[in-house]
Amino acid sequence: MSQKKLVAPFISENISLSSRVVMAPMNRRRAIKGIPSPSMITYYQQRAGAGLLISDNIAVSSNGGAYMNTPGIYTKNQKDAWKKVVEGVHTKGGKIFAQLVQSGRVGHPAIQNNEPLIAPSAIPVNETIRIPDNSYQSMTIPDAISTEEIPVWVKVFKEEAINAMEAGFDGVEIHAAHGFLIDQFINPLSNTRTDEYGGSIENRTRFLFEVMQEVIAAIGKHKVGIRLSPFREIYDLKTYPEELATHEYILDELQKLDILYVHFSNAVADGKPSIPLSFLENARQRFKNIIIIAGGFSVETAEEILQTGLVDLVAFGKLYISNPDLAERIKNDLPLADWDEETFYHGGDKGYIDYPKISFQGCIEC
């Protein structure tokens, strides 16, 4: 049996986890009109052996889900369905956080309830996206949020964080990564505003911190995490000269807020990670609470990064798709199953809840 740090319990003042293995947030796109499907109960319950589960992207509004079949939590039916998911996880002894997202300029009105996309500035993403007729259409020009409207969107995040807690989630993760709305405010390539929400680092991060402050006030700082993706190039967003300074400022301010964790999303291209170790060393000095990292890790490389002490937990995506009992397999040195990319983002139960578990003796159990 393995003695890996990865599967050792993680105990801090504010949370205790059975291991340092996290299921990364993934939008598997199995919701029905924004409502989590019954299969989603099974899906999360199968994976409750993770130290921590982080949910699919959960839209905070009807125009905030980016992709077809994204779940939401802004209606009673959605919240009630999530309650069943969370209860399923808790009956298996798991812990689960809700990842809350407003996708901003990423999406299409045909997906977003025929509502316009919103963004800090009226700059579209120069990409296509699949819409309900299964064609691929260009993303539309978003409506720039007026200064007067910003408090409305801050309140939306707060209200859906409350909904998540009422549904029974153990906490929430604010999605400020991957080129979605909060990240669009942070990045000057998508934020050309001239009011107090654009220009300087302090202004470009103002929306982020207004959201964080309101969510913290509503549910408590130790129930709140955040996802960030420094140096990640996605949806037309490229690296920019002030990016390091921007994220240093963000980490310093998050430390003052004393939130539970920061979750970095790492992208690996040509064998090179978007987040260098030097940045993690910097982050560890600035942020003293829990640091999670995700993105292309194998069991071996996850163990290596944990041994450096620069992160506390490692999140797995693809490996958790095909290995619902991933933490148990790691602990018992059992082989890992391959995934089917064709079923990542669409389809029914195939490639979703039909990956088998494996027993300690090595026999397959569905």
UniProtKB/TrEMBL annotation:
It comes from Chryseobacterium lathyri. One of its GO terms (cellular component) is cytosol. Residues 6-336 form the NADH:flavin oxidoreductase/NADH oxidase N-terminal domain. InterPro entries: Aldolase_TIM, OxRdtase_FMN_N, Oye-like. Pfam families: Oxidored_FMN. The lineage of its organism: Bacteria, Pseudomonadati, Bacteroidota, Flavobacteriia, Flavobacteriales. CDD domains: OYE_like_FMN. This is Alkene reductase. Its cofactor is FMN. GO terms for molecular function: FMN binding; oxidoreductase activity, acting on the CH-CH group of donors, NAD or NADP as acceptor.
